[in-house]
Amino acid sequence: MCPKDKIIIAYINWAHIVQQRICSSLLSLAHPNTAVLEKILPPLYFTYAQTLYEMFVEEKSMSWDNEYKNFGNVWGERPSELAITAVKYLQKNRSNNMILSILDIGCGYGRDAFYFLDNIRCRILGIDISEKAIDIATNAAFKAQKEDVKIQCCNFTKLKEGKYDIVFISNLYQLLKKNEREELRKTVMRTLKPNGLLFLGTLSERDPEHYGKGTPVPGESNSFQEKVYLHFCTKKELVEDFTFLNIKELYKHEYCEPRVTGEIHHHISWILIGEYVGTSYNSG
Length: 284
Known about the structure:
With 284 residues, this protein is of the alpha/beta class. The protein is 40% helix and 25% strand. α1 runs parallel beside α4 (43-71).
């Protein structure tokens, strides 16, 4: 078998086991923002890699579409714990006369965006990869006549240029593989204004609901694959990941989260509040 045939077969196998750890490593090379594979592969095979990455992203989007189609407002109308924390922090530390620009990455059906609008002076862009979630959020905004919110279906890597006072990311970081977490940090850097604030909520390594369930991901500590990939951060990891921020607060928060199915999930998450202070970046 010639080397080119071996490459083709490898990529076919890759498509079938894309959820496994070895494939996530290859997918990180095939990320549209990365030029590594383009340098080492002939154009045809690089195109295969890009196509497979797009299939991977589409698969994640379809998974969330199904979740929202089946359950609608999965977590009800109540805002997330991070949104409640962020509003309290902003009411205490930012002038009420300021109209804040907020980027909500992974906005879902808009429950946190609407909570911000109801409690602080702001304009919001919410983005999510689920078309169904965006439909729910857009319809809700129209019915409530909320004009200061814009909802957009897109991956954060495709987000157009813009600068915001606040970047808000609730329960997304834990769903991202290592290379995707790096891309998200780059997005935070390019979208936060000087002295802008990041509010991040992500599952901790002490989370009683999900930690240790499923198959451990080879080569990644505190990562498991069950229904979805989940990564559980330590404090040390978050401090190292966000060296470009002046971390104002970083603590574990324990809470119970009801779902529309009647289930109640018991979580322990990290809440990170950080101010953007420079241009240095730690890619890990």
